[in-house]
Amino acid sequence: MFLQLLSYIGAIVGFVLLVLSIASGLYYISELVEEHTEPTKRLLKKLIYSIIVTFVLLLIFDRFPVKLTLFSIFSYYVYLQNLHKFPYVELSSPVFLLSCVLVISNHFLWFHHFNNPYIPPLEVRLRPDYVPPRIPTFVEICSFFGLLVWLVPFALFVSLSAHDNLLPHHLDKPDDKKKNNGLAKVLVGNLREYIYAISRKFGYELDPHHGSIVY
């Protein structure tokens, strides 16, 4: 019984450390992108064009579904529109909102495709010349999702910036000079402030700069 309780504690601690590691990585990458905006924009463009070509090759040589492949190519065309004003983005713009919908749609549609492979009718499978369709391996599916479904949306999320005057915590500062925050930095910053607020309710202060003036 004690060992089971210990496993729960270990799982919680491991999950917290994993979240903190991901948050730290997002923050660092966002800082890096802010310092190298133009190279990042060129890299993202080349990455999107390369993935579109890869989808065409998969359609020709691996007989991927035509409609779903064309849908993904259209999705990357929409992702590309986010780069016109890179790294700035309006969170309420139609292109950004459509990109968010397409990211989720691509994930579920391709997941459904790989989870329900096409099985030919029985009369086809009984033919002497029948060759069974190749079922992708787990590693191939993971690589497909990582490189062709998640990579560009994740890179855009880390790279794009939102105007401070579009964010809720800056609505009360109309005289502030306009500047831009990476979406990842905004998310990590809000999460950090939330953790600080929770810790203060329990009598702990985790913010090393709390109560001091930081220049």
From TrEMBL:
A GO term from the CC aspect: endoplasmic reticulum membrane
Transmembrane segments: 6-29, 49-79, 91-114, 135-158
Entry keyword set: Membrane, Transmembrane, Transmembrane helix
Cross-referenced Pfam families: Erv26
One GO-annotated biological process of the protein: endoplasmic reticulum to Golgi vesicle-mediated transport
GO molecular function: COPII receptor activity
Principal localisation: membrane
UniProt KW Membrane keyword: yes
InterPro entries, per database record: Svp26/Tex261
Domain of life: Eukaryota
Keyword hit for Protease: no
Places the protein is found: Membrane
Membrane topology (UniProt): Multi-pass membrane protein
Family membership: Belongs to the SVP26 family.
Protein name: Svp26p
